Amino acid sequence: MEANRRSWDERVATHARSAFYGVDDWLASGRGPRPEETAAMGDVAGRRLVHLQCHFGMDTLQFARAGATVTGVDFSEAAIAEATSLAERAGLSARARFVCADVLAAPAALGGARFDVVYVSLGSLCWLPDVARWGEVVAELLAPGGVAYLFDVHPLSQIFDDAQGTTVAYSYFEEAEGYVDDFPYTYTDGEPLRNARTYWWNHSVAEILGALARRGLEIERFEEHDWTVFRQFPWLDEEPGGRYVIPKSRPRLPLSMTVVARAPGGAALEAGTEGRAAGN
Predict the structure, then answer these.
(1) What is the C-alpha separation between 38 and 186, in angstroms, rounded?
(2) What's the mean pLDDT in 209-235?
(3) Could you please report the per-residue DSSP string of 35-77?
(4) Which domains does the chain have, with CATH numbers?
(5) pTM of the full predicted structure?
């Protein structure tokens, strides 16, 4: 985890000035969360939302723009400093705070606070060695009737060799030892990393859903998508709107997934009808 922290500390400055994130365009656009996210979570205006593994806060602040009071949690001090600065530049400091903490220790770091929404975005779970503990954290952070939203890489797609995505190279299930990655570049444009080595873990669908269900959360929605939002494999086709899909010449497999789970009790958040729609 220390190696991961060093690598993510270094990545923050690169990501914040990258064309991939386009921070200046985001600041100018006033853009809020993606419609499919608010459809799944319901109207977040006036709600308390916590974003776990928030990085430098751009996704977190999209919900502040939609009227939520947001808290971002990340283990990188550099990310938290950049997120705090970004909130000020966006004029959203009054509705946003950022806390430096290991996500698996977030309930204590947040003083036992409860939230209407726990938000977990793409590329999060692979950095955690223990998805069962993650499920406990989500449950501890949710207020009665609150909703947890996860959009992440599908674990089946992570068993393949990173270079070509054609050879099974990694376990589908969570293993005690992390996989070592020495790739010298981050996923955005930018210079080679000095702290390139990272460690990651895969977690099966059953392990992820079970981590939530065993803590009393009701799984309201689980979808497997045959698309993703980054070029996970070199042979994916890019569609208008930024989605990457499997070419028609290849068999389809799930590349990403959406999970919505609700805590028992309290008044449920209202979700839009399209948030209930199933399928790809």
Answers:
(1) 29
(2) 96
(3) HHHHHHH---TT-EEEEET-TTSHHHHHHHHTT-EEEEEES-H
(4) 2-265 (3.40.50.150)
(5) 0.92
